C-alpha cells in the first residue's frame, strides 16, 4: 500500500460541487428575502 502524501489528491470535482452549492444557497436566500419583502408590502 502506498503512503498518503498530503495535498496530492485532485479535488477539482469537489471544488466545482462546492461552488455550485454556494451559488444555489445564495440564489435561494435572495429569493426568500424577495418573497418576504413582497409579503410585507402586500400585507401592509
Automatic annotation (TrEMBL):
Record-linked InterPro entries: Cyt-C_aa3_sf (IPR036596), Cyt_c_oxidase_su4_bac-aa3 (IPR012422)
Protein name from the UniProt record: Aa3-type cytochrome c oxidase subunit IV
Transmembrane domains' residue ranges: 21-42
Pfam families xref list: COX4_pro_2
Lineage, top ranks: Bacteria, Pseudomonadati, Pseudomonadota, Alphaproteobacteria, Rhodobacterales
Keyword Transmembrane: yes
Ranges where the Cytochrome c oxidase subunit IV bacterial aa3 type domain occurs: 4-43
Species, as recorded: Thioclava atlantica
UniProtKB keywords: Membrane, Transmembrane, Transmembrane helix
Claim: Zinc-finger is one of the keywords in the record: no
Amino acid at each position: 500500500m502506498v503512503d498518503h502524501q498530503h495535498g496530492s489528491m485532485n479535488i477539482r470535482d469537489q471544488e466545482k460541487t462546492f461552488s455550485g452549492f454556494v451559488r444555489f444557497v445564495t440564489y435561494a436566500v435572495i429569493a426568500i428575502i424577495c418573497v418576504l419583502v413582497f409579503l410585507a408590502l402586500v400585507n401592509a
